[in-house]
Structures
1.
Amino acid sequence: AQARAGIISTVEVLKVMEAFVNEPNYTVWTDLSCNLGILGTLLSHTDFYEDIQAFVRDVFSPIGERLGWDPKPGEGHLDALLRGLVLGKLGKAGHKATLEEARRRFKEHVEGKQLLSADLRSPIWVVSLQLHKQADMQEEKNRIERVLGTIGQPELIQKVLTFALSEEVRPQDTVSVIGGVAGGSKQGRKAAWKFVRDNWEELYNRYQGGFLISRLIKV
């Protein structure tokens, strides 16, 4: 609060955050995550954005390594919540090992080999958006886009729909993403229909006169 008010330097805040690297408490990490998220947003259009992402990776990777990806015998509910928080944060910060493991587990889930546990689905869906940005091949991007619609959480459904109209998705692939949400679940169907109605002007102007507008209506 003092840093935001300009009373002390943000550098002092970052030094305090570094002291929590061995902290096991979920509530503390939630607070750290929230404040780093605000700082990241403030720096997102500056030359320091990559530096703050590197800082996030440094602070969160030790707790991520200790928690691992799989539940441990006797761990509590807060440990499961902490695991999801930490892995999601590391993935969004571009932590290489986290991205690689998320990719592996995401692929196994999609292929039906090993379904993701409920606690890991949210962070991996979020990381899958990160994987989409980093994917070199359009084929890989399309594969990720098609499966994003299978999520069931309302807040993530909205994220995927918003993502569909973003610059990250080619205009010709937007319909596939919206269609994936519409066909993914009952909640997705309702959300996609509302999204199309709310954004009809933009969608119509984008696709008027083409086959994609009829395909959108069909899905």
2.
Amino acid sequence: MTQPSVILATASYDHTIRFWEAKSGRCYRTIQYPESQVNRLEITPDKRYLAAAGNPHIRLFDVNSSGPQPVMSYDSHTNNVMAVGFQCDGNWMYSGSEDGTVKIWDLRAPGCQREYESRAAVNTVVLHPNQTELISGDQNGNIRVWDLTANSCSCELVPEVDTAVRSLTVMWDGSLVVAANNRGTCYVWRLLRGTQTMTNFEPLHKLQAHDGYILKCLLSPEFCEPNRYLATASSDHTVKIWNVDGFTLEKTLVGHQRWVWDCVFSVDGAYLITASSDATARLWSVSTGEDIKVYQGHHKATIDEWTKNHN
């Protein structure tokens, strides 16, 4: 079977990962994931592999294969892996876990290469576009910048004491970082280069986006320019799209019946895909706020997804 031009992958608490033909909504491959639920999915930069973050391991699957087995397993976390991502060349992977650590893995060698202690359950980790700093957010409300060159924590912020940082996102050009918390608040900072290599955070905006938890915040990609959006997915069943210029509300996406755990923009920022505890993923038009497609097939909460275009 030829690969669809645009693929969507979703994972669920029903212990499966599903691959969908994005345009038709047809599920064409299901991988059983019996060991645990999947907390997060991420695609490698070359679009060849899909990382599934579970409890307490990370498994790497071949996107273009039909085989059910992972091609690699990463096993030194001791609790739920909540964040996973890749360096831009795909040489290494980073992860964050409820065991309180951030880890770096060389994809060409077994085992964990580095470990950083956050001293609280890590909910979210993002890689700065400079590829030399990781930013993590934890259950105690700490945001930490890990300088990979100096191999140390270069900056620590606590936007709201004892309020868990649920999600972090960095603008593609490294100009902004947004942290979303359990009280429905987004904190926005300008990122400024200091005299050293260290990034400085300059407070820019505080956005009361939702009344419930924000489970995911995401800034739009480079090819969305000149429009810049912030998407916030919430326990209030909605996703809101904010214009970064002034942080005005552009659209509220209504249709999910339960908590919305995850969202991802299409490459050009014209579409948003969301995943919810109502066991569906939905494709939305950012310009109209309408849902175009519903992906149904999971039996429990759906949490993560990504899209890709085959060139």
3.
Amino acid sequence: MARGELAWLRPHGVDSAALIVRLGPFTPPPPFWTVPLPERWRSVRSGHARAAQLLAAGLVSAAGRAFRRSLRAAAAAAGPPPLSPAVSELKAELHAGLAEVQLRLGHAAAAAANAGKALELRPAHLGARYARGVASAAMMDLELAREDLLAVLRARPGHAGASRELGRVRSKARQRDTQLATRLGKMFA
């Protein structure tokens, strides 16, 4: 449709009623960097909330897109370092959420990188530490995974996911050590 064009809309199942719509002019949104700073951060926060909703609903790919879009907007709105504590907190949440999405999609290296960025911004972020631990275990960096998962369990002793993952990490480490001992035994026998 072009500007000024008419469209007749007829609801499904109704023969007599019709709605006439005339397309008006389009006004493009202003560039993000020209929007006042409080409005930019409101946009970033609403994008984070939307991404969290999508993730909770199980729409993992859509949540990933929303987290990435919010991170780009946060980077544009934040300006150069040093960041204020509120900005650091929000960016850490966005990186941690993106790391969780990437874990669910099976992208362990990207998840570890985003969890690491979240931990740089907020070292006490348990969600990011757990995500980095799980991603490290998936990449067979068992020592880092063990350290991260133990840190999560020290902070929150009843964390079921960290306990389960730590058991898996210990099992993988035992298997790795057994295989190494077997190979060394064959080499020096």
